[in-house]
Each structure stands twice: as structure tokens, then as C-alpha cells.
Design goal:
Blueprint (H helix, E strand, L loop, with lengths): L5 H27 L8 H32 L36 H34 L4 H21 L8 H22 L5 H22 L2 H18 L6 H22 L2 H23 L6 H31 L11 H11 L5 H5 L2 H21 L3 H23 L5 H22 L2 H22 L2 H22 L13 H16 L7 H34 L2
Length: 562
């Protein structure tokens, strides 16, 4: 139930106290201006009673003034103070009855009705969709009308819902989402039925109708500030390739359609900042890209134009799901009044905090979606690019190296902007991750091991200089990989061929151990482990090298013995 704010309730109470003070002043004036007291006993009794009444009135006046001053001095508290003044009755406004019983845990009828305004529109959209689908199926089973009339009825129902939404937008705003969402969904279902079930529309016409329904959803969502309508539009538009797939659609045309939908969704997200719209676009956009890669452009015999179109779509998705959210966060930090960050309702935020255990930090946790997209988007871009072109490990490493440069530049730019330091750190960590992937794809053997050890050492040096715990954690992860690899090498049956110690493998192991020992000077946590591991590794190295040399010398000696 909606409650008045503390400021509004406080002003009302102060006004009531002022009215009571005026009544008391009038009562005191009447008592003081009355006829003089007589000398009779009855008159004496009346005089004494009047004096008592005047004294009580003065006491009530003093208490009211104290209550008014106390309430005025605490305007920013949790609520107005409880009225304990004795000015009750005798022409004063009756105070509200107060009960000491604890509030009931049961929901009142008003609370149930108001909560229904939240879930009823969402349930209504689902019911409208189900009703439209059942109506089409029932008309087909009964054979009542011809196919063209069925499609016309579907579009007519959508128009009726659309008109009702506009007519009730002011008087019943809580049902606008149901009506507009049902209208858009009806257009999608009718277009699908006309193309797939009845074969009345060709593929280009059906796709154009889907685009028109998506544009309508975007327009309605912006006009009425309803994120759910944009979500419905994007979900329907990105689901259209799955629904309308006929095997004859061209890859370039399909990619152009997906890019058009993502461009509209990105524009609406940049303007409104709706997180739900962004994530529906992310899931739907990458799903369509994977479907196209599997169905048309993943084979070795696929046409160059199909592969190039798919690559263009991948790059566009990468920009839409990484660069645009980053820019949106930057402009929101620079001008928060112009580019408002959307917030959940207090009730929903409280429930989310209780469900996740984050409490008051639930909103801050939700704002971390840009960090997650910064990590996931380049990985999907690298995988789909390698998949589309059937790249070799060396070529995929070059692509990863190129992404490393882009993310390193983004980290450099964001680190110097106010309020963007955390996102800058995330871009830097992504650059480290991509550089490690690039090294793993482009190098192998001793060179890869030595390069990873050197990279881990550099990461620890930088982490100490900028005092970044995330970078230090990445350095620990890299050294963990190096240590496990080194243990496998040092505990092998036979070491590298060549002179003991002075061979390529042994020198690589020594350099790796030296890097771990050097990193111990820059590690804030776990420096002892970085000193112990090189000592144990050196003992294993000597044992392996000297043991192999003794084994080979014994074999040579055995050949000399007759």
C-alpha cells in the first residue's frame, strides 16, 4: 500500500497542531474576558474551576508548542514523532486511534490488488499469446473459414488490442503493457502462420512483417516507457529466422536482417539503458549467429560471400554487446541526469537482495553486467571467427592478439576517466586473458612455457605498481599453470637430450624457476610459496639431469664390459 512520505505527513501534523493552538488561545481569551468572580461560594467554585481550566489550557498549549518544535527540528528522520499531546477533545480534532498490537503478517486486500498490477500484465501477455495460438488451431480443426480470412482475423485482433491500448493508456496505464504486448505478439504469430502454415506470404514479405512488428514494439516501448515491449519486439524479431527458416534464405540477407534488429535494440538500450533488453539481444543475437555458422557458413565449401557476411555480423555483434554498453556507462557517469541508469523498484530490489543474499548491494551487483559482457563477448567473437573461416591455430592466435591490442587501448582510455576505473581494470584483465590465449595458440613447447612465466612475472610487477588485486590474481593463475607444467617436466622419466644442465630444456626450466623466484619480491600474498617452489624445482631439476647423465654413462660403460 502506498504511504505518504515523511515530509508530507510532518507538514499535515504541524498544521493540525497550529489549529489546536489557535483554539487554545481563543479559549484562554474567553476565560480571561469573562465576568468578574462574585463573593458567593458558588461563584468562588466557578472561579476556582475556571482557574484550573486556564492552568490546564496553558499546560496543553506549552505541550503543543514543544511537540510542534520537536517535530519541526526533525524533518529528515524515519517519520514524524508520535503525538503524545494531551490536547484531545473539547473542540479539538480527535487523534487517530493507536494500537499496540504487532502488525499482521497477512496481506491486506489493497496490497493484493496493488501487487496484482505487477504480475497481472505479465500473465496477461502469456494468456493473450495462448489464446491467439489456440484460436488459430481451433479454426484450422473446425474448418470454419478459409486461410486468408484466418490471417485477416489475426491481424484484426492485433489492431483491436493496439487501439484499446491507446484508448486506455491514460485511464488504465497498468493494462497498457498487456494490450500492446498482446498486439505485437499477435502480429508475430499471424505472420508466422501466414508463411509457415498457410503459405500465403513469401519469405521476404513475412520477414518484412516481422521487421514492422519489431519497429512497432520499439516505438511503443519508447512512447510509454515500457521495457517489456522492447523485449517482446527483440525476442520476436530474433526468433523470426528460427520460425521462418525455409532453407532458401541467403546468408547475406539474413545477416543484414539481424544487424538491423541489433542496431535498433542497441539504439533503444543506449537511450533508455534497459538491461533486460540488452541481455535478450545478447542471447538472441549470438544464437542466430551460431545457427547461421552451423547451417550455411561453417563448411569448407561455403562461398566466400557467406563467410564474409557472417564475419561482418560477428563484428557488428561484438560492437553492439561490448563497445556500446561501455560507451553508455561512460556517458552515464559523465552526465547521470541526462543518461539515467535504470533501477529496479524497491520491492523487487528487496526481494532480489533477499534471494541472492546480497542485501542492499543487489543493485550494485546488477550494474556489473557490463563487466560480464566485457569478458564473454571477445571469447565468443574469437570462437565464431575461427569457426566461420576454419582458421588454423596460428591464425586464431593472430586474431586473439589483435583483440588484445584493442582491449589494452580501451583499458588505457577508461582508466583516466572519472568513475570508469573499475571497468578499465576489467578491460586490462581481458587483454591479459586474450594475450595468454594468443600465446597458447601461436607458441608451443619450451618457448610457450618461458613466455608464460615471463608474462606472469610482468603481471605481478604491474599489479604491485598499481595495487590491483585482480591483476595479482591473474598472475597467480598464470604461475599456477606454469608450476603444474614444470612439475610434469621435472618428474618425467628422461630429461631433454644433450649435455646435463646445459641443454635447451634444462635452461628453460631454470629460467622459469628464476622468474618464480623474482616474482616473490612483488607478491603481496603468498610470497613464501614463490620462494619454496623454485627451491624444490631446482632439486628436482638437478635430480633429473644428473640421474639421466648417470643412466646414460652406465649404459655406455655396460657396452665396454666384455
Amino acid at each position: 500500500m502506498k504511504e505518504d512520505g515523511p515530509d508530507q505527513d510532518l507538514s499535515a501534523r504541524v498544521e493540525r497542531l497550529e489549529r489546536e493552538i489557535e483554539v487554545l488561545h481563543e479559549a484562554l481569551g474567553r476565560r480571561s474576558d469573562g465576568p468578574a468572580a462574585t463573593s458567593s461560594p458558588a461563584a468562588g467554585m466557578d472561579a476556582r474551576s475556571q482557574q484550573r481550566e486556564r492552568a490546564q489550557a496553558r499546560q496543553r498549549l506549552d505541550s503543543l508548542r514543544a511537540a510542534r518544535s520537536g517535530e519541526a527540528e526533525q524533518p529528515g528522520g524515519d517519520g514524524p514523532a508520535q503525538d503524545t499531546s494531551p490536547a484531545q477533545g473539547a473542540g479539538f480534532e480527535p487523534a487517530a486511534e493507536r494500537r499496540s498490537d504487532p502488525p499482521s503478517a497477512r496481506f491486506s486486500a489493497h496490497e493484493i490488488l496493488e501487487s496484482a498490477e505487477l504480475w497481472l500484465p505479465r500473465v496477461g501477455i502469456g494468456l493473450v499469446l495462448l489464446a491467439v495460438a489456440l484460436a488459430f488451431k481451433y479454426s484450422i480443426d473446425q474448418g470454419w473459414v478459409i486461410r486468408a480470412v484466418r490471417v485477416a482475423l489475426g491481424y484484426g485482433l492485433g489492431m483491436i488490442l493496439l487501439v484499446l491500448g491507446f484508448r486506455l493508456s491514460e485511464s488504465r496505464p497498468q493494462y497498457v503493457q498487456v494490450l500492446f504486448g498482446g498486439a505485437v505478439a499477435t502480429f508475430y504469430i499471424t505472420g508466422f502462420a501466414a508463411f509457415r502454415l498457410y503459405e500465403l506470404f513469401s519469405y521476404p514479405i513475412a520477414l518484412a512483417l516481422m521487421v514492422a512488428a519489431t519497429v512497432l514494439a520499439f516505438f511503443l516501448s519508447l512512447a510509454h516507457n515500457r521495457a517489456a515491449l522492447s523485449v517482446i519486439g527483440v525476442a520476436g524479431a530474433l526468433g523470426a529466422p528460427f520460425l521462418l527458416e525455409s532453407g532458401s534464405s541467403s546468408v547475406p540477407g539474413l545477416i543484414a536482417y539481424v544487424m538491423l534488429v541489433l542496431a535498433g535494440a542497441s539504439a533503444v538500450y543506449f537511450y533508455r539503458g534497459w538491461r533486460s533488453l540488452l541481455w535478450v539481444s545478447v542471447v538472441g543475437g549470438w544464437s542466430v549467429m551460431m545457427m547461421i555458422a552451423l547451417g550455411a557458413a561453417s563448411g569448407s565449401q561455403a562461398a566466400f560471400l557467406d563467410k564474409a557476411s557472417l564475419q561482418a555480423g560477428i563484428v557488428f555483434a561484438w560492437i553492439s554487446f561490448w563497445a556500446i554498453p561501455l560507451v553508455r556507462e561512460a556517458v552515464s557517469m559523465a552526465d547521470p541526469e541526462r543518461w539515467l541508469a535504470p533501477r529496479l523498484s524497491p520491492k523487487l530490489l528487496e526481494r532480489l537482495g533477499d534471494f541472492t543474499g546480497l542485501g542492499d548491494r543487489a543493485e550494485e551487483w546488477l550494474r556489473g553486467h557490463v563487466h560480464l559482457l566485457s569478458i564473454v563477448t571477445p571469447l565468443l567473437t574469437l570462437v565464431l571467427t575461427s569457426w566461420a573461416w576454419r582458421l588454423s591455430t596460428m591464425d586464431a592466435g593472430v586474431v586473439a592478439l589483435g583483440l588484445t591490442v584493442v582491449y589494452a587501448l580501451a583499458a588505457r582510455m577508461l582508466m583516466v576517466r572519472p568513475g570508469m576505473k573499475e571497468l578499465g581494470h576489467t578491460q586490462g584483465l581481458v587483454a591479459l586473458m586474450l594475450s595468454t590465449i594468443a600465446l597458447g595458440l601461436m607458441l608451443d613447447g619450451d618457448v610457450l612455457l618461458l613466455t608464460l612465466a615471463a608474462q606472469a612475472l610482468v603481471v605481478h610487477v604491474v599489479a604491485k605498481r598499481i595495487s590491483d588485486s585482480w591483476a595479482e590474481g591473474w598472475g597467480h593463475l598464470l604461475f599456477g599453470i606454469v608450476v603444474f607444467w614444470l612439475i610434469a617436466r621435472l618428474t618425467g622419466d628422461i630429461g631433454p637430450a644433450g649435455m646435463p644442465i646445459l641443454n635447451g630444456g634444462a635452461m628453460t626450466d631454470l629460467a622459469t624457476l628464476a622468474a618464480a623466484m623474482g616474482a616473490s619480491s612483488f607478491v603481496a600474498h603468498g610470497a613464501t610459496m614463490y620462494r619454496v617452489v623454485p627451491q624444490v624445482g631446482l632439486a628436482l631439476l638437478l635430480g633429473r639431469e644428473l640421474g639421466d647423465s648417470w643412466f646414460m654413462a652406465g649404459r655406455r660403460c655396460s657396452t665396454w664390459v666384455p
